[in-house]
Amino acid sequence: MDTTELIESARKVLDGNWNGKYTIPSATLYPHQWSWDSCFIAIGNSYFNSDRAMNELEYLFDAQWKNGMIPHIVFNEKEKTYFPSAEFYEITRSQNAPRHIGTSGMTQPPVHAIACFYIYHNNNDKARSKEFLTRVYPNLLNFHRYLMTERDPEKSGLVTIFHPWESGRDDSPVWDDALSRISIMELPIFKRLDVIAVDGAIDTIPSDEEYDKFIYLIELMKLYNYDEKIMYDKFPFKIKDVSFSSILYVANKVLLRIANLIGEDSHQISEWISRTEQNFHKFFFPPSESISDVSDGLFYDYDLVIKDRIIKRTVSSLSPIYSGLISNQEAEVVIKWISNADFCAEYDTVASTDENESYFKPLTYWRGPIWINTNWALWLGLLRYGDNERAERIRKGVLKLVLNQGFREYYDPTTGLGLGGKNFSWTAALVIDMLMMKSVPF
Ligand code: 9WN
Fold this sequence. Notes:
Bound molecules: (2R)-2-(alpha-D-glucopyranosyloxy)-3-hydroxypropanoic acid
Oligomer: single chain
């Protein structure tokens, strides 16, 4: 298959998953709209189908909460094959929740400003795409403000997540210790539908014990009426996430460019950017003299409950290279990790977890498999720091996986086998970007 054919088949995946309002991640597993999925999808569509990319994001923004939160799922009421459902979330417990549509009560990483800028960048009709930026700017600004206030009362410029699903890396071993410290008081009766959807591939999904904790955290959010202030005080799961914060840093820089483009005051955004710059290392980078066994040059999530870093080597530890807020020397160390056998044994792509660690599981999602969105971000990071050769190896590695196994949700890093959802939208969309991007847009 040549490049043109690969682009064509990626477009077919996006067309097949488009339902007239948004693009579902994958028909086999995810029948609703997911927030960061829609952003990656819009990046792919920005090359051919600007209108669809704009509509997709505006549909999502229409479900934004009054406090600025963009929910991680916008539900299609007709679809009943996914749990937890809109009814389960009971979002009307919050004054901030929309009343016209069902959503989840949590958020996901802020790729939105980045996706909107792609739409502007790849559209020849600059007047029209500038109008789009002007229209969505308040949504983007309100979302970033929400993350910088309700999710960061410390004013650190780093985001606190209340649920593993908010990271987008749901089942990562990073959450294990925090989850194990939570005792479940009471759980409603529910039925896991992912068990049915994966059709026997039980090894790929979280254990029942973990899943119960996921659901229990939603029960607690409901108990506190999704009130961030109360949750900040009482919640048993509060983690400042490296990857989420790295994405927000990039998104703030892009938002600043958008503000300047459309003539909005960017003062507040500059302040947010410098907060992140001042605190990123303080929270996420263990000082070399403190704990010798983790002075490995990697970045680690910070658990606010136990006030300590979570030393688990996952792809999140590598994500600061995407942010561009680490020094060239620090980037060199991260690049060594990206390139060595721990993360990148075969297929020239980066696994979700260090393959030499006890928590590495090649089939279980976010505990080992290769994901295309994280590899896409590392590819951009490598380009940013000038390692074009390694970037190209990752890009080629991604294309090889897709050519061999199709546009899957994730891939086994030991065999290259495609796993999870089939015809997975963000894999198709980001492959389009990896094939068509002429220069990094920002
Ligand atoms: C929960 C849709 C989503 C992605 C996440 C991925 C997975 C959902 C699930 O699928 O999460 O949000 O049901 O497991 O981990 O990143 O957005 O593709």
